[in-house]
Here is the input.
Amino acid sequence: MDNKSIKKLEADLWESADLLRAGSKLTSNQYCMPVLGLLFLRYAYSRFKMVEEEILKTRPVRNGRQMPVEASDFAAKSALFLPKEAQYSYLVNLPSNVAAMGLVNIDGQPMASLGEVVNNAMNLVEQQSEQLTGVLPKSYTDFSDDLLGELLRIFNNNALDEVGGDVIGRIYEYFLNKFAKNIASDDGVFFTPKSLVKMIVNVLEPKQGVLLDPACGSGGMFVQTGDFVNEAGLQANSSMTFYGQEKVEYNAQLCLMNMAVHGLTGVIKSGDEANSFYHDAHNLEGQCNYVMANPPFNVDKVKAESATNAGRLPFGVPRENKNKEIGNANYLWISYFYAYLNETGRAGFVMAASATDSQGSDKDIREKLIKTGHVDVMISVGNNFFYTKSLPCSLWFFDKGKAEELKDKVLFIDARNYFTMVDRTLNEWNEWQLKNLNAIVWLYRGEFDKYKQLLEEYKTEIANMIFESGEENLKAVNEDVFVNGFEIAKKCLKTIKESAKRDINSCDRKDKKQVQNQWDEKISAVDEIVDVVREAHWLYSKFGVGEYEDILGLCKIADIDTIESKGWSLTSGAYVGVAPVGDDGVDFEERMAEIHEELRSLQIESNELMDAISNNIKELGL
Here is the structure.
C-alpha cells in the first residue's frame, strides 16, 4: 500500500470514528482515551499475530502436535502476549447478545455487556505488562453496545492487515494528532508536532544511552527516537534507556500507551513527584546522554525556595518576585536540560521565542550558558506549528561533546519562512525540508559525506517518482535535477493541468467524473515530484556540492565574541539578517485560483455556522 493510500485510510478511519462521536453524548475528552485504547488493542493484536507466526516456524513438535506459544516467547521479541479474550478477533466477532453467553471477567464476575468484555480485555493486557498496569482505559461501559461494536468494526478494517502493524502504529499517531487538536490544554501543548520532534531527533542523532524527557507529554520524543535508532540498524530497547516525567496523569497514560504501541519500554513517572520544578524524579542530574523536551512555555508562580532546593540550576536561580515566586520558568527548564547532561551529552528542546533575548536574570543565566561553549545550534521557527497556539518558537541544541574547532561557535538558522502550509492555521516541515535543515547542521559540523548522500538520495527518489509517473516530459529533470530541474518540472505540471482542463471540458457529462479522477491522480503525482525537485533546488542553490557558507536570511555561524556584541542574544534573526526578496516560485494565476477556492469554502463554512446558530436559538425559544 503506497503513502497516498495509507493517508486515505487514516482519514477514512478518523472520519468514521468521529462521526460516531458526533452521534453520541460523549465529549472529545471522554472519547479520546477509549478510542486510542481500541486502536492500541488492534495494534497489539496485529503484532501478536505477526510474532506468533514467527514463533510457530521453529516451535517444537511433541507427539505429533506443535507446542503452543507462551507469554515468554513474546516477551523475547518485544511483543505483548494476548490471552484469547483480549485478542481483537475475539472481541469483534462476539454476538450482539453478550449477556446470553455466560461470560465472566478475571475476578469471576458475570459480564452482561460488550463494554464489560472490553474492559476485561484491557485488564488482561495489563496483566502481561508491568509498564501498562493501571494505564489502559476501562470506561467502555460508558458506550452503548451498538456504538462500541461499530467502533470495533471500524478498526477491524481489512486494509490494516494488508499494510501491517507498523502502519497501524502510524495510524495510532494520526489519531493522537487529531485528538490533540481537539483537547490539547491551554497551559502549554502536551502534543508536540511531529516535524518539530523529528528536527530535534535528527540534530541530536541518538544512538545509545540514557534519554530523558522531563516534560514528556504523550511521548513523541521517545517514539521518534525509537524510529531513528531502529532505522540506524540498532534495537531501540536494548540501545536506549527511556526516562520520562509528566505531571499530568492523563498525559502520562497516553505516553505509556504510545510507547507500548511502538514496542518501546521506559520508566515514566507522573503526578506531583514528577513536577520537574520541584523534583528530579529519576535522580539523573549529570547522567544523561540525551535530553529532549517540549516544556510548557512561560509558566509563572513557581515557588522560588522549592525550586532552589530541588537543584539542577548550574547558572543560578532566576530572580524571584515579591511573592517569592519565579514569574517565568523558561530559564528553569533551560538550566535543567543542561544540568541533566553527562560530559558528552546532547540536548534539544522547544522553547518560547522570547527566551532567546529575554532580559534581567534570564540574560545573566544565558551569558553563563553561552560561555560554556556548549550551545550548539539555534533554530527559529515560525507561527502556526502548534495545534493550539500560533506563537513562534525556537529549537535549542546543546552539545557538551562538541568538536574543539566548534567550541566557541553557534550555528544560527532562521527557518521562520521555510515551511509547508498544511492548512490556514497549521504549518509543518515536510520530510525533505527536515532533511535540508539537517543538512545545514551537517555542513556546520563538517559531516560532508552525509550531505553528499542526501544529494544522491534526491536523485534516486526523483528518478523513481518520474519512472512511476510515466511522464516522458519529466525525464529531462533527471539530467539536471538541482539546477534547471525545478523549472522543467513546473512547466510540465502546467502543461498537464492545461491538458486536463481541455479534456474534462470536452468529455461527455457521464464520463466527466471518471476523467476528472484520472487527471487528478496524474496531477497529484506530478505535483509531488515538483515539490521534491523544489527542495532539491533549494538546497543545491545554497550549498552546491557540499560546502558550508553563511546565507543571508537563513544561516550564520557566530563566535562568542560576536554573540557578546549582540548583548548575549540567541535570536537567529539578529545574526543571519534579512534575505533579499526574490521570485518565490509561486505561479500567480494558480495561487489566485487557490485563494478563490479557499474563500469559497470559508463562505460555505460561514453559512453552515450561521444556520447552526439560528437553529440553536430557535430550540432555546429565543
Summary: The radius of gyration is 27 Å. The longest strand covers residues 341-352. Residues 185-190 have pLDDT under 50 and may be disordered. The longest helix spans residues 512-543.
